[in-house]
Design brief:
The complex is a heterodimer of chains A (about 300) and B (about 375). Chain A has a domain of about 200 residues: MetI-like (MetI-like fold). Helix content of chain A is about 70%, strand content about 0%. Chain A contains 13 helices and no strands. Chain B folds into 2 domains: about 240 residues, Rossmann fold, CATH 3.40.50; about 130 residues, Beta Barrel (OB fold (Dihydrolipoamide Acetyltransferase, E2P)). Helix content of chain B is about 20%, strand content about 30%. Chain B contains 8 helices and 20 strands. In chain B, the strands form 5 sheets. Chain B has a 6-stranded mixed sheet, with helices on both faces. In chain B, strands 15-19-16-17-18 form a 5-stranded antiparallel sheet, with no helix packed on it. Chain B has a 4-stranded antiparallel sheet with strand order 2-1-4-5, covered by helices on one side. The radius of gyration of chain B is 25 Å and the shape is elongated. Chain B starts with about 25 loop residues before the first strand and ends with a strand. The chains are: A mainly alpha (about 300), B alpha+beta (about 375). At the A-B interface, α8, α9 and α13 of A face α2 of B.
């Protein structure tokens, strides 16, 4: 092929494509329409902006809510971290969220495993829907029900009361994430581990749990956040002795007109974002590990 | 070579030495899922210690269910399973001490090759130095030295199946159960791994139960084949036995090709008639199950069939039938003539030398065979 002598004919250089044409070429064969990008951007801003407005406001010097914020100072943050009412409610929220998330993670994971065993049966589908109820029912309805029953059981205003109510609310999130993780779990692994001498409990610890850990962890984070920002039930069962952060924030606006809420809101926004960012980073690191299933297999397939 | 996995130091969980592999006895076992037919229907079979037994059959014939019953993944509807006279019918899978290899390998994706192979030893609380030694030995046995730190997804299908095999034999199980282990591999790899499995079976000497739907694979590998059909065992025997002396039409058709002449209910002790042909019968070729009455069929293997142009060329004493060449398949080493046989035009097969190009589509020929090369089976 290389020995072929090209007759020297003057080939006209191809006209340089216009900028627009080059831009079109760079886009894929089935490009995202421009209007979709524009609409998408607006929706994203609409969702995020109100949350972000609170951050500049938290650095304001003003003692009332004003936007745009006046001056810049850290006095709201100083206020937050020196006031016992704010600190106590923050600590309460953390304790409640941690306990509720633990319970929800254990209950939700167990429920997902059990329902996975029964999958395909009508009773399993019915129970799955029943366990999803707390997400579907308006929270004010749940709050009323919780309040009435907790009054009778003397759980109003107690740590146990908050934890139980929030755990029930958060369980469906764990159930959903673990169920979806189990969707890609090959049940043959459990036959393999059994044939290799592992009891069902050992199989769960050494095979199932590591393989669905991502779903469990995602569920636990969602459960924690659900409890941490829950306000409706918390308002019903609050007591002067025990308040969570969202209730304190509600009070500070409605009763005290205290701008410290801007600082606490900013802290919550940043904390929650950090939690999700870390979860995201850990996940992406795992998928790019050389031993990780999907990306490696695709490489093998390509080289064959 | 003696196998490096030291048997002297290893004992099963019950404390008994594993020796050469267990005898597996299935005593009229039945598994009924509540469908139209039981998946496994009153199967009785004894698999001898150290034997290579293949469960062969079409899909849905009950071979995999039988294997799962032995492994303990399914519970028996009725019957008894014994390992060396110990009744294991209700023993959970993880206490049976049987090694299992799955079609999709079922290697744990979150563990390395070494981690996977060490798994059964860790579950048995084998001391760490011994785990390392035995993992290294078994990696050598399956010729995967140096791959211990890889993850399963970094290996090819054939390598993954070797790891699965290593994991299933490293704890000296009482028997090795393989469920279509080569089903997901391509043809060349299958052949290589068949050799490998035979070698490993020879070296380890364990009882081995191999499930496949591939008759060629079954013939290549097995000491004995149990042919499954509709939840029952149609016939058990060595590959030669099943191929040369099928008892039923199903067996004759499932193993190898044959031309089948339905004989109806006529007696088969003397000469038989088919259409207007009359054929001699060698009493040694009549299957036991064809002697007791009921419909029978005469089957002939393609390699036993000769082709000539007219009746006069048929050797004396041979049976013959008119046929027309319908198609010719070139198979490399030989050619197969596809024939339309008799007035009815049933499909027949004859094998002729690859160099023989004397026949063309539509040719009228005579197919012949010796009476001792035919077989009369229950239809």
């Amino acid at each position: 092929m290389t020995t072929l002598v090209e007759p020297s004919i003057e080939v006209p250089a191809p006209a340089k494509p216009s900028l627009l044409a080059r831009w079109r070429n760079r886009r894929s064969a089935d490009p995202t329409p421009v209007w979709l990008t524009v609409v998408g951007t607006f929706v994203a801003l609409y969702l995020v902006l109100p949350t972000l407005i609170v951050i500049p406001m938290s650095f304001s010097e003003a003692t009332t809510f004003v936007f745009p914020p006046r001056g810049h100072s850290l006095w709201l943050y100083r206020n937050f971290f020196t006031n016992d009412r704010w600190l106590d409610s923050l600590r309460n929220s953390f304790i409640v969220a941690a306990c509720a998330a633990s319970i929800a993670t254990i209950v939700g994971t167990s429920a997902a495993l059990g329902l996975h065993q029964l999958r395909g049966r009508r009773s399993a589908r019915f129970m799955q829907s029943a366990l999803m109820f707390p997400i579907l029912v308006p929270s004010i309805v749940i709050a009323t029900a919780v309040y009435i029953s907790f009054l009778r059981w003397h759980l109003v205003g107690t740590l146990a009361g908050y934890v139980l109510a929030h755990a029930a609310l958060a369980t469906p999130f764990v159930l959903a994430t673990v169920t979806s993780a189990l969707g890609t779990f090959d049940p043959t692994y459990l036959r393999a581990s059994a044939s290799l001498g592992a009891s069902p409990w050992r199989s769960f610890l050494t095979v199932t749990l590591p393989l669905i850990s991502r779903g469990v962890a995602t569920g636990a984070v969602l459960a924690f956040v659900t409890s941490f920002d829950e306000v409706v039930i918390a308002l019903f069962i609050r007591s002067p002795r025990f308040q969570t952060l969202p209730v304190q924030m509600y009070n500070s606006v409605v009763v005290e007109i205290d701008p410290t809420i801007a600082a606490s809101s900013s802290l919550i926004v940043v904390t929650v974002s950090l939690i999700f960012l870390v979860a995201l980073l850990v996940n992406s690191r795992r998928t790019s590990r050389p031993g990780s299933a999907n990306n490696r297999r695709s490489v093998v397939r390509r080289t064959r | 070579m003696t196998i490096g996995i030291s048997r002297s130091s290893s004992t099963g969980p019950a404390g008994e030495p594993t020796g050469k592999g267990a005898q597996i006895r299935l005593e009229s076992i039945t598994k009924d899922f509540g469908l139209a037919h039981p998946a496994v229907d009153n199967v009785t079979l004894t698999i001898e210690p150290g034997e290579f037994m293949t469960f062969l059959g079409p899909s849905g014939s009950g071979k995999t269910t039988t294997l799962n019953l032995i492994a303990g993944f399914e519970s028996l509807t009725s019957g008894t399973i014994r390992l060396d006279s110990q009744d294991v019918s209700t023993l959970p899978a993880h206490k049976r001490n049987l090694g299992m290899v799955f079609q999709n390998y079922a290697l744990f994706p979150h563990m390395t090759v070494a981690g996977n192979i060490a798994y059964p030893l860790r579950e048995r609380r084998v001391p760490k130095p011994e785990i390392e030694r035995r993992v290294a030995e078994v990696l050598e046995l399956v010729q995967l030295q140096g791959r211990d730190k890889h993850y399963p997804s970094q290996l090819s299908g054939g390598q993954q199946q070797r790891v699965a095999l290593a994991r299933a034999i490293v704890f000296n199980p009482r028997a090795l159960l393989l469920d279509e282990p080569l089903g997901a591999l391509d043809r060349n790899l299958r052949a290589a791994l068949q050799l490998e499995i035979r070698r490993i079976h020879r070296e380890v000497g364990t009882t081995l139960v191999f499930v496949t739907h591939d008759q060629e694979e079954a013939m290549n590998l097995s000491d004995r084949i149990a042919l499954f059909h509709d939840g029952r065992i149609e016939q058990v025997g060595s590959p030669e036995n099943l191929y040369a002396e099928p008892e039923t039409l199903f067996t004759a058709r499932f193993l190898g090709d044959s031309t089948v002449f339905a004989l109806g209910d006529q007696p088969v002790t003397g000469p038989v008639t088919w259409e207007d042909e009359r054929w001699a019968v060698d009493s040694g070729t009549v299957a036991q199950r064809a002697r007791s009455g009921g419909p029978t069929a005469l089957v002939v293997r393609p390699e036993s069939v000769g082709i000539v142009r007219d009746r006069a060329q048929v050797p004396s004493g041979a049976n013959s039938v008119r046929a027309r060449v319908r198609d010719i398949e070139y198979m490399g080493a030989y050619r197969t003539l596809l024939l339309a046989v008799g007035q009815e035009g049933i499909t027949g097969r004859a094998r002729i030398p690859a160099a023989d190009k004397n026949y063309a589509l539509g040719d009228e020929v005579v197919a012949w065979w010796h009476p001792d090369a035919q077989r009369i089976v229950a239809a």
